[in-house]
Amino acid sequence: MSAKFGIARVWCAAILALTLSAGARAADKHPFGIDDDSALRRARAIAVSPDGKTVLYDVSWAGTKGPRAHEWRLIGVAGGNSRKLDLPEHFTPSGFTKEGDALFGIEEIDKKDQFSIVPLAAGKLKQNLALPSGIHSAFISPDGTRFALLADPAPKDPLAEVRHVAENQRTSLYVVGLHGENGAWWCPALDSISDISWSDDGQEIAVVTGLPKIGHHDVHSYIDICNAAGARRVADIANSTAGLAWADGGREIAVTSTSLDVLTPDHVYTVAASGGKLTDRTPDLAGSVETLTSDMHGNVWVLTHRGVITDCDAFRDGKLVPAFRWTDGVILSAPVNTSFSGSPDGPVFNVGDPLHSPNVAVARDGKLVKITQEGDDTLASVSLGDVRVVHWTAKDGTKLDGIVTFPPGYDAAKKYPFLNLPHGGPEANDALEFDFFSRLVAGLGYVVIQPQYRGSTGYGSEFLQAIYQHFGDRAYSDVDSATDFAIAQGWADPNRLAIFGWSAGGFMTSWTVTQTHRYKAAIEGAGITDWLSFIPTSDISQVDYDARWQEKDPSPFLKFSAVMFADAVTTPLLILHGEADLRVPTFQGREYFVLLAERGKTARMVTYPGSPHFPILGEQRRDVFKEVADWLGRYNP
Questions:
Q1: 555, 583, 629 from 544: Cα distances, Å
Q2: Are the C-beta atoms of residues 500 and 441 closer than 8 Å to each other?
Q3: CA–CA distance, 543 with 206 (Å, rounded to integer)
Q4: β-pairing, 416-420 with 492-502?
Q5: Which 3 state secondary structure label does DSSP give 100?
Q6: Distance between CA 293 and CA 303 in Å, rounded?
Q7: What pLDDT shows up at residue 342?
Q8: Which of 278, 290, 386, 453 gives the lowest tally of CB atoms within 10 Å of its CB?
Protein backbone atom coordinates (compact mmCIF):
# COMPACT_ATOMS: atom_id res chain seq x y z
CA MET A 1 0.00 0.00 0.00
CA SER A 2 1.39 3.38 -0.96
CA ALA A 3 1.93 6.02 1.69
CA LYS A 4 -0.42 8.30 -0.23
CA PHE A 5 -3.25 5.73 -0.15
CA GLY A 6 -2.57 5.02 3.52
CA ILE A 7 -2.84 8.72 4.41
CA ALA A 8 -6.05 8.94 2.43
CA ARG A 9 -7.49 6.01 4.43
CA VAL A 10 -6.51 7.74 7.66
CA TRP A 11 -8.20 10.98 6.51
CA CYS A 12 -11.33 9.07 5.42
CA ALA A 13 -11.49 7.36 8.79
CA ALA A 14 -11.05 10.67 10.56
CA ILE A 15 -13.73 12.35 8.45
CA LEU A 16 -16.09 9.39 9.04
CA ALA A 17 -15.46 9.62 12.79
CA LEU A 18 -16.17 13.35 12.75
CA THR A 19 -19.31 12.79 10.69
CA LEU A 20 -20.56 10.10 13.06
CA SER A 21 -19.71 12.28 16.04
CA ALA A 22 -21.59 15.24 14.54
CA GLY A 23 -24.52 12.96 13.79
CA ALA A 24 -24.52 11.72 17.35
CA ARG A 25 -24.45 15.28 18.65
CA ALA A 26 -27.33 16.18 16.33
CA ALA A 27 -29.22 13.11 17.49
CA ASP A 28 -28.74 14.21 21.10
CA LYS A 29 -30.59 17.44 20.42
CA HIS A 30 -34.34 17.77 20.81
CA PRO A 31 -37.01 20.22 19.61
CA PHE A 32 -37.62 23.26 21.81
CA GLY A 33 -40.16 22.29 24.46
CA ILE A 34 -41.82 23.65 27.56
CA ASP A 35 -39.01 22.47 29.86
CA ASP A 36 -36.54 24.42 27.74
CA ASP A 37 -38.79 27.48 27.91
CA SER A 38 -39.00 27.18 31.71
CA ALA A 39 -35.20 27.00 32.01
CA LEU A 40 -34.27 29.54 29.32
CA ARG A 41 -32.47 32.51 30.89
CA ARG A 42 -32.52 35.97 29.37
CA ALA A 43 -30.48 39.08 30.20
CA ARG A 44 -31.68 42.69 30.31
CA ALA A 45 -29.49 45.72 30.98
CA ILE A 46 -30.84 48.03 33.71
CA ALA A 47 -28.20 50.74 34.23
CA VAL A 48 -24.59 51.75 33.66
CA SER A 49 -22.35 52.73 36.58
CA PRO A 50 -21.28 56.40 36.96
CA ASP A 51 -17.76 55.63 35.67
CA GLY A 52 -19.20 53.91 32.61
CA LYS A 53 -17.31 50.68 33.31
CA THR A 54 -19.96 48.39 34.75
CA VAL A 55 -23.43 47.29 33.64
CA LEU A 56 -26.19 46.31 36.04
CA TYR A 57 -28.35 43.66 34.42
CA ASP A 58 -31.22 41.33 35.24
CA VAL A 59 -31.16 37.63 34.41
CA SER A 60 -34.61 36.07 34.50
CA TRP A 61 -36.28 32.76 33.67
CA ALA A 62 -39.86 31.48 33.76
CA GLY A 63 -39.28 28.48 36.02
CA THR A 64 -41.75 25.68 36.63
CA LYS A 65 -43.68 27.27 39.48
CA GLY A 66 -44.38 30.72 40.85
CA PRO A 67 -43.50 34.15 39.42
CA ARG A 68 -40.62 34.66 37.03
CA ALA A 69 -37.26 34.31 38.83
CA HIS A 70 -34.74 37.17 38.78
CA GLU A 71 -31.02 37.35 39.44
CA TRP A 72 -29.32 40.74 39.54
CA ARG A 73 -25.76 40.87 38.27
CA LEU A 74 -22.90 43.26 37.45
CA ILE A 75 -20.59 42.85 34.46
CA GLY A 76 -17.77 44.91 33.01
CA VAL A 77 -18.48 46.66 29.72
CA ALA A 78 -15.64 44.61 28.23
CA GLY A 79 -17.71 41.52 28.99
CA GLY A 80 -15.89 40.03 31.93
CA ASN A 81 -16.11 39.71 35.71
CA SER A 82 -19.84 39.01 35.91
CA ARG A 83 -20.97 38.61 39.51
CA LYS A 84 -24.26 38.00 41.24
CA LEU A 85 -25.54 40.61 43.70
CA ASP A 86 -27.03 39.76 47.07
CA LEU A 87 -30.02 42.10 47.16
CA PRO A 88 -33.21 42.09 49.24
CA GLU A 89 -35.70 39.54 47.94
CA HIS A 90 -38.40 42.03 46.92
CA PHE A 91 -36.10 44.80 45.68
CA THR A 92 -36.04 45.75 41.98
CA PRO A 93 -33.10 48.05 41.19
CA SER A 94 -33.53 50.99 38.82
CA GLY A 95 -29.98 52.41 38.74
CA PHE A 96 -26.83 53.52 40.56
CA THR A 97 -26.41 56.39 42.96
CA LYS A 98 -23.83 58.98 41.88
CA GLU A 99 -20.94 57.47 43.84
CA GLY A 100 -21.65 54.08 42.31
CA ASP A 101 -21.61 52.38 45.72
CA ALA A 102 -25.35 51.78 45.99
CA LEU A 103 -28.42 50.97 43.92
CA PHE A 104 -31.78 52.68 44.10
CA GLY A 105 -35.10 51.16 43.14
CA ILE A 106 -38.47 49.90 44.27
CA GLU A 107 -39.01 47.39 47.06
CA GLU A 108 -42.21 45.74 48.21
CA ILE A 109 -42.76 46.64 51.86
CA ASP A 110 -45.98 45.71 53.68
CA LYS A 111 -47.62 44.78 50.37
CA LYS A 112 -46.86 48.17 48.74
CA ASP A 113 -44.05 49.21 46.44
CA GLN A 114 -41.79 51.77 48.14
CA PHE A 115 -38.47 53.48 47.43
CA SER A 116 -35.17 51.99 48.67
CA ILE A 117 -31.44 52.62 48.37
CA VAL A 118 -29.38 49.44 48.85
CA PRO A 119 -25.58 49.69 49.37
CA LEU A 120 -23.46 47.31 47.33
CA ALA A 121 -21.00 46.79 50.19
CA ALA A 122 -21.98 44.40 52.95
CA GLY A 123 -22.74 45.77 56.37
CA LYS A 124 -24.05 49.16 55.31
CA LEU A 125 -27.64 50.09 56.06
CA LYS A 126 -30.15 50.61 53.30
CA GLN A 127 -32.48 53.61 53.17
CA ASN A 128 -36.23 53.39 52.72
CA LEU A 129 -38.85 55.99 51.88
CA ALA A 130 -42.51 55.03 52.14
CA LEU A 131 -45.54 56.96 50.94
CA PRO A 132 -49.06 56.02 52.11
CA SER A 133 -50.28 54.63 48.79
CA GLY A 134 -46.97 53.44 47.39
CA ILE A 135 -44.40 54.46 44.77
CA HIS A 136 -44.37 53.35 41.13
CA SER A 137 -40.90 54.31 39.85
CA ALA A 138 -37.80 56.40 40.61
CA PHE A 139 -35.48 58.64 38.53
CA ILE A 140 -32.26 60.18 39.82
CA SER A 141 -31.31 63.77 38.96
CA PRO A 142 -28.25 64.45 36.73
CA ASP A 143 -26.22 65.70 39.71
CA GLY A 144 -27.24 62.72 41.82
CA THR A 145 -28.63 64.79 44.70
CA ARG A 146 -32.38 64.17 44.27
CA PHE A 147 -34.89 61.62 43.14
CA ALA A 148 -38.09 62.14 41.19
CA LEU A 149 -40.63 59.55 42.28
CA LEU A 150 -43.84 58.75 40.44
CA ALA A 151 -46.32 57.84 43.13
CA ASP A 152 -49.97 57.71 44.10
CA PRO A 153 -50.74 60.91 46.07
CA ALA A 154 -53.84 59.47 47.73
CA PRO A 155 -53.86 58.83 51.49
CA LYS A 156 -53.87 55.23 52.66
CA ASP A 157 -57.26 53.61 52.30
CA PRO A 158 -58.10 51.91 55.63
CA LEU A 159 -60.65 49.67 53.89
CA ALA A 160 -58.44 48.59 50.99
CA GLU A 161 -58.60 44.95 52.12
CA VAL A 162 -62.41 45.14 52.34
CA ARG A 163 -63.44 46.81 49.08
CA HIS A 164 -62.04 48.48 46.01
CA VAL A 165 -63.32 51.83 44.76
CA ALA A 166 -63.79 52.18 40.99
CA GLU A 167 -61.68 55.24 40.17
CA ASN A 168 -58.70 56.24 38.07
CA GLN A 169 -55.29 55.40 39.44
CA ARG A 170 -53.48 58.64 40.19
CA THR A 171 -49.79 59.23 39.48
CA SER A 172 -48.09 62.42 40.68
CA LEU A 173 -44.51 63.68 41.12
CA TYR A 174 -42.73 63.55 44.48
CA VAL A 175 -39.18 64.96 44.66
CA VAL A 176 -36.88 64.09 47.55
CA GLY A 177 -33.21 64.53 48.47
CA LEU A 178 -30.62 61.78 48.33
CA HIS A 179 -31.00 60.98 52.03
CA GLY A 180 -34.77 61.42 52.22
CA GLU A 181 -34.65 65.13 53.05
CA ASN A 182 -36.92 67.93 51.77
CA GLY A 183 -39.48 65.64 50.20
CA ALA A 184 -42.40 67.42 48.53
CA TRP A 185 -45.07 66.97 45.87
CA TRP A 186 -44.14 69.03 42.83
CA CYS A 187 -47.00 70.35 40.68
CA PRO A 188 -49.67 68.38 42.59
CA ALA A 189 -52.38 69.30 40.09
CA LEU A 190 -50.65 66.96 37.62
CA ASP A 191 -52.00 63.60 38.78
CA SER A 192 -52.06 61.47 35.63
CA ILE A 193 -48.35 61.42 34.71
CA SER A 194 -47.02 58.92 32.16
CA ASP A 195 -43.46 60.15 31.39
CA ILE A 196 -40.89 62.48 32.94
CA SER A 197 -37.41 63.75 32.02
CA TRP A 198 -34.96 65.74 34.17
CA SER A 199 -33.42 68.88 32.67
CA ASP A 200 -29.63 68.84 32.31
CA ASP A 201 -29.18 71.17 35.30
CA GLY A 202 -31.49 69.11 37.50
CA GLN A 203 -33.70 72.09 38.34
CA GLU A 204 -36.75 71.21 36.24
CA ILE A 205 -38.62 68.15 35.08
CA ALA A 206 -40.54 67.82 31.83
CA VAL A 207 -43.78 65.93 32.46
CA VAL A 208 -46.35 64.28 30.20
CA THR A 209 -49.87 63.82 31.54
CA GLY A 210 -52.89 62.34 29.83
CA LEU A 211 -56.60 62.20 30.28
CA PRO A 212 -57.45 59.26 32.56
CA LYS A 213 -59.73 56.56 31.23
CA ILE A 214 -62.71 56.99 33.56
CA GLY A 215 -64.60 60.15 32.74
CA HIS A 216 -63.21 60.63 29.22
CA HIS A 217 -64.02 59.11 25.85
CA ASP A 218 -61.15 60.74 23.97
CA VAL A 219 -57.38 60.63 24.29
CA HIS A 220 -55.47 63.82 25.06
CA SER A 221 -51.95 64.58 26.34
CA TYR A 222 -50.16 67.57 27.83
CA ILE A 223 -46.53 68.55 28.32
CA ASP A 224 -45.61 70.68 31.32
CA ILE A 225 -42.30 71.82 32.74
CA CYS A 226 -42.41 71.41 36.47
CA ASN A 227 -40.25 72.70 39.33
CA ALA A 228 -40.63 73.38 43.04
CA ALA A 229 -42.54 76.60 42.30
CA GLY A 230 -45.17 75.04 40.03
CA ALA A 231 -45.94 73.94 36.47
CA ARG A 232 -45.76 75.73 33.14
CA ARG A 233 -47.82 74.32 30.24
CA VAL A 234 -45.70 73.70 27.13
CA ALA A 235 -47.97 71.80 24.74
CA ASP A 236 -51.54 70.61 24.37
CA ILE A 237 -51.68 67.42 22.26
CA ALA A 238 -54.92 66.03 20.87
CA ASN A 239 -53.53 62.51 20.82
CA SER A 240 -51.28 60.08 22.68
CA THR A 241 -47.52 60.22 23.27
CA ALA A 242 -44.67 57.89 24.23
CA GLY A 243 -41.25 58.77 25.57
CA LEU A 244 -39.97 62.22 26.51
CA ALA A 245 -36.62 63.97 26.11
CA TRP A 246 -34.98 67.39 26.26
CA ALA A 247 -33.43 68.18 22.88
CA ASP A 248 -31.34 70.85 21.18
CA GLY A 249 -29.48 71.78 24.34
CA GLY A 250 -32.67 72.08 26.35
CA ARG A 251 -34.36 74.47 23.94
CA GLU A 252 -36.86 71.85 22.76
CA ILE A 253 -38.86 68.95 24.13
CA ALA A 254 -39.12 65.81 21.97
CA VAL A 255 -41.83 63.15 22.19
CA THR A 256 -43.24 60.38 20.08
CA SER A 257 -46.80 61.13 18.99
CA THR A 258 -49.18 60.78 16.06
CA SER A 259 -52.01 62.30 14.07
CA LEU A 260 -53.68 58.92 13.56
CA ASP A 261 -57.09 57.74 14.73
CA VAL A 262 -55.46 54.56 16.03
CA LEU A 263 -53.72 56.73 18.66
CA THR A 264 -50.41 54.89 18.28
CA PRO A 265 -47.34 57.16 18.53
CA ASP A 266 -45.29 56.62 15.39
CA HIS A 267 -43.42 59.87 14.59
CA VAL A 268 -40.97 62.17 16.38
CA TYR A 269 -42.42 65.55 17.33
CA THR A 270 -40.79 68.55 19.00
CA VAL A 271 -42.04 71.68 20.72
CA ALA A 272 -40.10 74.67 22.00
CA ALA A 273 -39.40 74.42 25.72
CA SER A 274 -40.93 77.91 25.97
CA GLY A 275 -44.21 76.51 24.62
CA GLY A 276 -46.05 76.21 21.34
CA LYS A 277 -47.40 73.64 18.91
CA LEU A 278 -45.86 70.27 18.17
CA THR A 279 -44.01 69.87 14.88
CA ASP A 280 -43.73 66.50 13.15
CA ARG A 281 -40.01 66.03 12.44
CA THR A 282 -40.41 62.74 10.57
CA PRO A 283 -43.32 63.31 8.14
CA ASP A 284 -41.95 60.92 5.52
CA LEU A 285 -40.96 58.08 7.84
CA ALA A 286 -41.45 54.70 6.18
CA GLY A 287 -41.42 52.87 9.51
CA SER A 288 -42.75 53.66 12.99
CA VAL A 289 -41.05 55.27 15.96
CA GLU A 290 -41.70 53.28 19.13
CA THR A 291 -40.25 55.59 21.78
CA LEU A 292 -37.36 57.96 22.51
CA THR A 293 -35.12 58.93 25.38
CA SER A 294 -32.15 61.20 26.07
CA ASP A 295 -28.85 60.92 27.91
CA MET A 296 -26.68 63.33 29.85
CA HIS A 297 -24.56 64.09 26.80
CA GLY A 298 -27.44 65.71 24.94
CA ASN A 299 -28.10 62.72 22.70
CA VAL A 300 -31.68 61.83 21.86
CA TRP A 301 -32.08 58.15 21.03
CA VAL A 302 -35.03 56.79 19.07
CA LEU A 303 -36.23 53.20 18.68
CA THR A 304 -37.53 52.80 15.14
CA HIS A 305 -39.46 49.84 13.73
CA ARG A 306 -38.63 49.11 10.11
CA GLY A 307 -40.72 46.09 9.29
CA VAL A 308 -39.78 43.35 11.75
CA ILE A 309 -36.42 44.99 12.49
CA THR A 310 -35.97 47.55 15.27
CA ASP A 311 -33.08 50.01 15.01
CA CYS A 312 -31.73 52.65 17.33
CA ASP A 313 -31.53 56.02 15.57
CA ALA A 314 -30.19 59.31 16.82
CA PHE A 315 -32.32 62.45 16.58
CA ARG A 316 -30.00 65.30 15.57
CA ASP A 317 -30.70 68.69 14.05
CA GLY A 318 -34.36 67.81 13.69
CA LYS A 319 -33.72 64.58 11.78
CA LEU A 320 -33.44 60.85 12.39
CA VAL A 321 -29.89 59.60 11.78
CA PRO A 322 -29.07 55.85 11.70
CA ALA A 323 -27.00 54.96 14.75
CA PHE A 324 -27.09 51.28 15.75
CA ARG A 325 -28.49 48.07 14.26
CA TRP A 326 -28.20 44.53 15.59
CA THR A 327 -27.35 42.69 12.38
CA ASP A 328 -28.53 39.30 13.63
CA GLY A 329 -31.95 40.47 14.81
CA VAL A 330 -33.44 43.42 16.67
CA ILE A 331 -32.65 45.99 19.33
CA LEU A 332 -35.16 45.31 22.09
CA SER A 333 -35.04 48.50 24.12
CA ALA A 334 -33.82 52.06 24.14
CA PRO A 335 -30.11 52.43 24.96
CA VAL A 336 -29.13 52.30 28.61
CA ASN A 337 -26.67 55.01 29.65
CA THR A 338 -25.24 56.27 32.87
CA SER A 339 -27.56 58.83 34.46
CA PHE A 340 -24.93 61.41 35.38
CA SER A 341 -23.43 64.31 33.46
CA GLY A 342 -19.70 64.12 32.95
CA SER A 343 -19.71 60.32 32.75
CA PRO A 344 -18.32 58.43 29.74
CA ASP A 345 -20.69 57.99 26.82
CA GLY A 346 -21.17 54.28 26.20
CA PRO A 347 -24.70 53.18 25.35
CA VAL A 348 -25.68 49.65 26.28
CA PHE A 349 -28.44 47.75 24.49
CA ASN A 350 -30.68 44.76 24.89
CA VAL A 351 -30.66 42.70 21.71
CA GLY A 352 -32.39 39.61 20.40
CA ASP A 353 -32.34 37.24 17.43
CA PRO A 354 -34.16 34.04 16.40
CA LEU A 355 -31.36 31.73 17.55
CA HIS A 356 -30.53 33.18 20.95
CA SER A 357 -32.21 34.37 24.11
CA PRO A 358 -32.22 38.17 24.63
CA ASN A 359 -28.89 39.46 25.89
CA VAL A 360 -26.86 42.60 26.62
CA ALA A 361 -24.66 44.30 24.01
CA VAL A 362 -22.36 47.33 24.20
CA ALA A 363 -21.40 49.86 21.56
CA ARG A 364 -17.80 49.55 20.35
CA ASP A 365 -16.49 51.53 17.40
CA GLY A 366 -20.00 52.14 16.14
CA LYS A 367 -21.01 48.47 16.32
CA LEU A 368 -22.80 46.38 18.92
CA VAL A 369 -20.95 43.55 20.66
CA LYS A 370 -22.78 41.08 22.90
CA ILE A 371 -21.30 40.78 26.41
CA THR A 372 -23.69 38.24 27.96
CA GLN A 373 -24.63 34.80 26.67
CA GLU A 374 -27.56 33.84 28.85
CA GLY A 375 -29.62 30.96 27.50
CA ASP A 376 -26.86 29.55 25.32
CA ASP A 377 -26.40 26.57 27.64
CA THR A 378 -30.09 25.61 27.36
CA LEU A 379 -30.24 26.09 23.60
CA ALA A 380 -27.03 24.10 23.04
CA SER A 381 -29.07 20.90 23.42
CA VAL A 382 -32.00 22.14 21.34
CA SER A 383 -32.58 21.65 17.63
CA LEU A 384 -34.04 24.81 16.10
CA GLY A 385 -35.58 25.16 12.67
CA ASP A 386 -34.92 27.98 10.25
CA VAL A 387 -36.58 31.40 10.65
CA ARG A 388 -37.22 33.56 7.58
CA VAL A 389 -38.70 36.97 6.85
CA VAL A 390 -41.10 36.54 3.93
CA HIS A 391 -43.12 38.85 1.70
CA TRP A 392 -46.32 38.41 -0.28
CA THR A 393 -49.15 40.35 -1.88
CA ALA A 394 -52.71 39.91 -0.62
CA LYS A 395 -55.65 39.60 -3.02
CA ASP A 396 -56.47 43.31 -2.73
CA GLY A 397 -52.87 44.26 -3.62
CA THR A 398 -51.63 45.00 -0.10
CA LYS A 399 -47.92 44.25 0.32
CA LEU A 400 -47.35 42.19 3.46
CA ASP A 401 -44.49 40.79 5.51
CA GLY A 402 -44.31 37.89 7.90
CA ILE A 403 -41.94 35.74 9.92
CA VAL A 404 -41.95 32.00 9.25
CA THR A 405 -40.54 29.51 11.75
CA PHE A 406 -39.87 26.02 10.42
CA PRO A 407 -39.72 22.83 12.49
CA PRO A 408 -36.35 21.19 13.13
CA GLY A 409 -35.33 18.94 10.26
CA TYR A 410 -37.71 20.63 7.84
CA ASP A 411 -37.95 18.80 4.50
CA ALA A 412 -39.07 20.95 1.56
CA ALA A 413 -40.50 17.86 -0.14
CA LYS A 414 -43.10 17.46 2.59
CA LYS A 415 -46.14 19.44 3.66
CA TYR A 416 -46.50 20.20 7.34
CA PRO A 417 -49.24 21.04 9.81
CA PHE A 418 -49.51 24.80 9.86
CA LEU A 419 -50.25 27.47 12.48
CA ASN A 420 -51.18 31.07 11.73
CA LEU A 421 -50.04 33.15 14.74
CA PRO A 422 -51.29 36.78 14.51
CA HIS A 423 -49.73 39.14 17.06
CA GLY A 424 -51.46 41.19 19.74
CA GLY A 425 -51.65 44.94 19.97
CA PRO A 426 -52.93 45.20 17.33
CA GLU A 427 -50.80 48.33 16.79
CA ALA A 428 -47.56 46.44 17.36
CA ASN A 429 -45.39 44.02 15.44
CA ASP A 430 -43.56 40.74 15.65
CA ALA A 431 -39.82 41.24 15.95
CA LEU A 432 -37.07 39.08 14.48
CA GLU A 433 -36.17 37.57 17.86
CA PHE A 434 -36.53 34.31 19.76
CA ASP A 435 -40.32 33.95 19.90
CA PHE A 436 -41.11 31.27 22.47
CA PHE A 437 -44.64 30.50 21.19
CA SER A 438 -43.42 30.06 17.61
CA ARG A 439 -40.56 27.86 18.78
CA LEU A 440 -42.77 25.74 21.02
CA VAL A 441 -45.32 25.07 18.26
CA ALA A 442 -42.58 24.52 15.65
CA GLY A 443 -41.16 21.98 18.10
CA LEU A 444 -44.42 20.04 17.67
CA GLY A 445 -43.63 19.72 13.95
CA TYR A 446 -45.52 22.78 12.69
CA VAL A 447 -44.67 25.52 10.23
CA VAL A 448 -45.63 28.77 11.98
CA ILE A 449 -46.24 32.14 10.32
CA GLN A 450 -46.53 35.49 12.09
CA PRO A 451 -48.26 37.88 9.65
CA GLN A 452 -47.69 41.63 9.90
CA TYR A 453 -51.22 42.67 9.03
CA ARG A 454 -52.50 46.19 8.47
CA GLY A 455 -52.36 47.95 11.81
CA SER A 456 -48.85 46.63 12.50
CA THR A 457 -46.07 49.07 13.30
CA GLY A 458 -43.00 49.32 11.09
CA TYR A 459 -44.70 50.07 7.78
CA GLY A 460 -45.67 53.74 7.95
CA SER A 461 -48.67 55.74 9.10
CA GLU A 462 -50.99 54.77 6.25
CA PHE A 463 -50.52 51.07 7.04
CA LEU A 464 -51.26 51.75 10.73
CA GLN A 465 -54.28 53.94 10.07
CA ALA A 466 -55.85 51.35 7.77
CA ILE A 467 -56.98 49.26 10.75
CA TYR A 468 -59.20 51.95 12.27
CA GLN A 469 -62.79 50.62 12.29
CA HIS A 470 -61.54 47.83 10.01
CA PHE A 471 -59.90 45.25 12.27
CA GLY A 472 -62.46 42.63 11.31
CA ASP A 473 -62.16 43.00 7.55
CA ARG A 474 -58.84 44.51 6.41
CA ALA A 475 -56.66 42.97 9.11
CA TYR A 476 -58.57 39.68 8.95
CA SER A 477 -58.07 39.55 5.18
CA ASP A 478 -54.34 40.11 5.64
CA VAL A 479 -54.01 37.40 8.29
CA ASP A 480 -55.95 34.86 6.25
CA SER A 481 -53.85 35.67 3.17
CA ALA A 482 -50.80 34.46 5.12
CA THR A 483 -52.35 31.00 5.13
CA ASP A 484 -52.91 31.20 1.36
CA PHE A 485 -49.26 32.18 0.96
CA ALA A 486 -47.99 29.29 3.11
CA ILE A 487 -50.06 26.81 1.12
CA ALA A 488 -48.84 28.26 -2.19
CA GLN A 489 -45.24 27.93 -1.03
CA GLY A 490 -45.78 24.24 -0.32
CA TRP A 491 -45.03 24.62 3.41
CA ALA A 492 -48.53 24.07 4.74
CA ASP A 493 -50.74 21.02 4.36
CA PRO A 494 -54.11 22.58 3.40
CA ASN A 495 -55.85 19.82 5.37
CA ARG A 496 -53.97 20.58 8.60
CA LEU A 497 -54.41 24.29 9.28
CA ALA A 498 -54.71 25.93 12.70
CA ILE A 499 -54.83 29.48 14.07
CA PHE A 500 -53.83 30.82 17.49
CA GLY A 501 -53.51 34.34 18.91
CA TRP A 502 -53.48 36.19 22.23
CA SER A 503 -55.21 39.49 23.07
CA ALA A 504 -55.77 41.29 19.76
CA GLY A 505 -54.49 38.07 18.17
CA GLY A 506 -57.12 36.32 20.27
CA PHE A 507 -59.76 38.53 18.67
CA MET A 508 -58.40 37.57 15.28
CA THR A 509 -58.78 33.89 16.16
CA SER A 510 -62.29 34.23 17.59
CA TRP A 511 -63.35 36.26 14.56
CA THR A 512 -61.65 34.07 11.95
CA VAL A 513 -63.63 30.95 12.91
CA THR A 514 -66.87 32.86 12.25
CA GLN A 515 -65.68 33.76 8.74
CA THR A 516 -64.10 30.57 7.42
CA HIS A 517 -64.17 26.83 8.09
CA ARG A 518 -60.71 26.13 6.65
CA TYR A 519 -58.97 25.75 10.03
CA LYS A 520 -59.17 22.38 11.78
CA ALA A 521 -58.27 23.78 15.21
CA ALA A 522 -58.32 27.25 16.75
CA ILE A 523 -57.02 28.65 20.03
CA GLU A 524 -57.72 32.11 21.39
CA GLY A 525 -56.08 33.58 24.46
CA ALA A 526 -57.63 36.60 26.23
CA GLY A 527 -59.40 37.52 23.00
CA ILE A 528 -61.94 40.26 22.34
CA THR A 529 -65.24 38.67 21.34
CA ASP A 530 -67.74 41.49 21.99
CA TRP A 531 -66.67 45.03 21.04
CA LEU A 532 -69.81 46.62 22.47
CA SER A 533 -68.87 45.58 26.01
CA PHE A 534 -65.08 45.46 25.61
CA ILE A 535 -64.34 49.09 24.69
CA PRO A 536 -65.83 50.63 27.88
CA THR A 537 -64.69 47.91 30.30
CA SER A 538 -61.00 47.47 29.46
CA ASP A 539 -58.64 49.07 31.98
CA ILE A 540 -57.16 51.41 29.37
CA SER A 541 -58.71 53.52 26.65
CA GLN A 542 -59.59 51.35 23.65
CA VAL A 543 -61.08 53.97 21.32
CA ASP A 544 -58.17 53.34 18.96
CA TYR A 545 -60.45 50.66 17.48
CA ASP A 546 -63.48 52.90 17.12
CA ALA A 547 -64.16 56.23 18.86
CA ARG A 548 -67.84 56.44 17.95
CA TRP A 549 -70.39 56.53 20.76
CA GLN A 550 -72.08 53.18 21.20
CA GLU A 551 -75.51 54.52 22.16
CA LYS A 552 -75.71 56.46 18.91
CA ASP A 553 -75.56 53.27 16.88
CA PRO A 554 -74.37 49.94 18.29
CA SER A 555 -74.26 48.19 14.92
CA PRO A 556 -70.62 49.10 14.06
CA PHE A 557 -69.47 47.47 17.29
CA LEU A 558 -71.50 44.34 16.69
CA LYS A 559 -70.33 44.06 13.08
CA PHE A 560 -67.01 42.46 14.08
CA SER A 561 -68.08 40.83 17.36
CA ALA A 562 -67.63 37.06 17.23
CA VAL A 563 -70.43 36.53 19.77
CA MET A 564 -72.90 37.75 17.16
CA PHE A 565 -71.88 34.94 14.79
CA ALA A 566 -71.43 32.02 17.19
CA ASP A 567 -73.82 29.88 15.15
CA ALA A 568 -71.43 30.05 12.17
CA VAL A 569 -68.51 28.41 14.01
CA THR A 570 -67.56 24.87 13.05
CA THR A 571 -63.88 24.90 14.06
CA PRO A 572 -63.08 23.37 17.48
CA LEU A 573 -62.10 26.37 19.64
CA LEU A 574 -60.01 26.44 22.82
CA ILE A 575 -60.40 29.61 24.92
CA LEU A 576 -57.68 30.53 27.46
CA HIS A 577 -58.09 33.48 29.83
CA GLY A 578 -56.68 34.91 33.05
CA GLU A 579 -59.30 35.35 35.77
CA ALA A 580 -57.82 38.69 36.88
CA ASP A 581 -57.46 40.10 33.37
CA LEU A 582 -58.37 43.80 33.32
CA ARG A 583 -57.10 44.51 29.82
CA VAL A 584 -59.54 42.09 28.18
CA PRO A 585 -61.99 41.21 30.97
CA THR A 586 -62.52 37.49 31.45
CA PHE A 587 -66.22 37.67 30.61
CA GLN A 588 -65.23 38.22 26.97
CA GLY A 589 -64.09 34.61 26.78
CA ARG A 590 -66.86 33.36 29.05
CA GLU A 591 -69.62 34.90 26.94
CA TYR A 592 -68.27 33.38 23.73
CA PHE A 593 -67.71 29.97 25.30
CA VAL A 594 -71.25 29.76 26.67
CA LEU A 595 -72.78 30.83 23.37
CA LEU A 596 -70.75 28.19 21.52
CA ALA A 597 -71.47 25.46 24.04
CA GLU A 598 -75.22 26.01 24.05
CA ARG A 599 -75.20 25.70 20.26
CA GLY A 600 -73.44 22.36 20.46
CA LYS A 601 -70.13 23.63 19.14
CA THR A 602 -66.83 22.00 20.09
CA ALA A 603 -65.35 24.43 22.61
CA ARG A 604 -63.30 24.34 25.81
CA MET A 605 -62.51 27.21 28.18
CA VAL A 606 -59.61 27.19 30.66
CA THR A 607 -59.12 30.09 33.08
CA TYR A 608 -56.16 30.83 35.34
CA PRO A 609 -56.85 32.04 38.91
CA GLY A 610 -55.23 35.36 39.78
CA SER A 611 -53.75 35.68 36.30
CA PRO A 612 -53.63 39.08 34.56
CA HIS A 613 -53.62 39.49 30.77
CA PHE A 614 -51.07 36.70 30.35
CA PRO A 615 -50.29 34.14 33.08
CA ILE A 616 -47.26 35.12 35.15
CA LEU A 617 -46.85 31.93 37.18
CA GLY A 618 -44.59 29.22 35.82
CA GLU A 619 -47.11 26.44 36.37
CA GLN A 620 -49.80 28.42 34.54
CA ARG A 621 -47.51 29.26 31.64
CA ARG A 622 -46.67 25.57 31.30
CA ASP A 623 -50.33 24.62 31.38
CA VAL A 624 -51.09 27.11 28.61
CA PHE A 625 -48.70 25.29 26.32
CA LYS A 626 -49.99 21.87 27.43
CA GLU A 627 -53.53 22.96 26.53
CA VAL A 628 -52.30 24.29 23.16
CA ALA A 629 -50.37 21.13 22.35
CA ASP A 630 -53.22 18.84 23.41
CA TRP A 631 -55.77 20.80 21.37
CA LEU A 632 -53.62 20.79 18.25
CA GLY A 633 -52.86 17.10 18.71
CA ARG A 634 -56.55 16.25 19.05
CA TYR A 635 -58.05 18.33 16.27
CA ASN A 636 -55.17 19.00 13.83
CA PRO A 637 -53.01 15.85 14.06
A1: 17, 14, 33
A2: yes
A3: 27
A4: parallel
A5: coil
A6: 9
A7: 64
A8: 386
